[in-house]
Write a structure and sequence with these properties.
Layout lengths: L2 H16 L12 H13 L3 H16 L3 H14 L4 H14 L2 H11 L2 H9 L5 H16 L6 H14 L6 E4 L6 H10 L8 H8 L4 E7 L9 E8 L6 H4 L14 E9 L10 H15 L5 E4 L6 H10 L3 H8 L3 H14 L10 H8 L3 E6 L6 H7 L3 E5 L5 H11 L6 H22 L1
Parallel strand pairs: 4-5
Antiparallel strand pairs: 1-2, 2-3, 3-4, 6-7
Length: 436
């Protein structure tokens, strides 16, 4: 009997002893049994048997509750690291030889068996979707618990390869798109809730509306990320106006601005694998070809951390901010918003606001802050109604991206920079005066 057959027989006996059979109602195998099946799966050489065994592992995993899934991840963490002795020997051999063969042997020895396991799970029918969902469970159930970072690193390593730009398909979604895909938009919309199909129709059907998504051939029914676009005459001042059910649609001949007003990541299991930068740039190119009259491409973006930051400044003794929270005057609110977006930083020296980090990192300009742009309960709670336009100028995107990533320079017009610095200086001066 070949080694592959021996492994498969052992795997089959585990499946039988656990009572697990695909397609039958039976108790799911325990996490320990699944981990043993996973180890045996890594050793199989027959592709048909790999596909069957991978399906068994994935089906068994799906049947586990959260406690069982966490135990399964414990097994992935503890039982699938590279063998220490073999890795040490390969490293020593390379240090002595310093030749391509030794380097290749070292690379093979350093690769965790977890990566090969994930590759084989991906071979099962629907395996890609299930591996993505498995990583979503990993992030949800283990969070920042020490020791699981190396498990997530293996997921990220492979998913970044499987979901690189060469595999992504830019798809325009409209009212003729499959119903299942339209339902996904309602489910995944994360910025401005889509209440029902009538609401969705207003987002994708009119001539001055567009929606684009990145799709992947291994996940044909699951958008990875999508962006909703409003075509307007001039810069918008209110998201409520953009999505008003009673608004009159504009003719594409009468518009000069494309407004990206909602960008939603759809797959929790692909967190940290960025598609937004590519999506926006591809949509800009697509719209420019379709509508040459478009001259301006901007977002109408939320500022989710603004109110929390203002409260922190008020708690730190800034009387002007405390007054602002009690009585949000437009001029003062605009000034503090500019200060927050351009000058407030996190522990790594990056813009504190996550949406700002995303767009500025893409090479956009923090162009304009807008009072009263989002008067929804969520908008008032997060940012006192403030929103911001990030400007995507194709002639400057790359240079601004380089300046931001290499030197931390935020692209913004002088008026906004001056307003932010003036407000920061005034706050520092008043704090100093208060200590005298």
């Amino acid at each position: 009997m070949t080694l592959t057959a021996q492994i498969y027989d052992r795997l089959s006996s585990l499946v039988v002893s656990s009572g697990w059979r695909r397609g039958r109602a039976a108790p799911a195998p325990t996490p320990d049994v699944l981990i043993e099946e996973a180890r045996l799966l890594v050793g199989l050489n027959s592709e048909p048997r790999v596909m069957v065994a991978a399906s068994d592992v994935l089906n068994g995993y799906d049947a586990l509750d959260d406690s069982g899934k966490r135990a399964f991840f414990d097994g992935l963490r503890d039982g699938f690291d590279p063998p220490a002795d073999a890795l040490a020997q390969a490293a020593q051999d390379w240090l002595k030889a310093r030749d391509p063969d030794a380097l290749e042997a070292l690379s093979r020895a350093a690769e965790p068996p977890r990566q090969e396991l994930l590759r084989r799970l991906n071979m099962a029918p629907g395996g890609t979707v299930q591996v993505v969902r498995m990583r979503a469970d990993l992030l949800r159930l283990t969070g920042r618990v020490p020791g699981f970072a190396r498990v997530d690193a293996d997921f990220r390593h492979l998913l970044r390869s499987w979901f690189n730009r060469g595999f992504l398909q830019l798809v325009r979604i409209d009212w003729r798109s499959p119903a299942l895909l339209l339902e996904k938009l309602i489910e995944y919309e994360a910025v401005h809730e889509i209440h029902d199909f009538n609401d969705l129709q207003r987002r994708v059907l009119p001539a001055d509306r567009r929606c684009y998504a990145f799709m992947h051939p291994a996940m044909p029914d699951e958008p990875l990320i999508f962006v909703e676009v409003a075509l307007t005459d001039g810069l918008p001042d209110s998201v409520q106006t953009l999505i008003d059910e009673k608004r009159a649609a504009l003719s594409p001949n009468d518009v000069d601005t494309a407004v990206f007003y909602s960008i939603s990541n759809c797959q929790a299991g692909l967190a940290g694998i960025s598609f937004g930068n590519l999506l926006i740039k591809n949509v800009v190119a697509e719209l420019s070809r379709e509508l040459p009259t478009l001259t301006t491409f901007v977002t109408l973006s939320p500022i989710p951390g603004l109110r929390t930051w203002l409260q922190q400044r008020a708690d730190a003794g800034e009387a002007a901010v405390r007054t602002l929270l009690d009585d949000p005057q437009p001029a003062a609110l605009s000034a503090q918003t500019a200060r927050y977006l351009l000058l407030a930083k996190d522990a790594k020296g990056r813009p504190l606001d996550p949406v700002a980090r995303f767009h500025l990192g893409n090479g956009a300009e923090a162009h304009r802050v807008i009072v009263g742009a989002n008067t929804s309960p969520r908008g008032m709670k997060q940012s006192l109604g403030m929103m911001v336009n990030y400007l995507y100028d194709s002639k400057r995107i790359e240079a601004q991206h380089d300046e931001f990533t290499e030197r931390g320079i935020i692209a913004a017009p002088k008026r906004l920079q001056d307003l932010a610095r003036k407000t920061q200086t005034e706050a520092a001066t008043k704090k100093t005066d208060g200590k005298k």
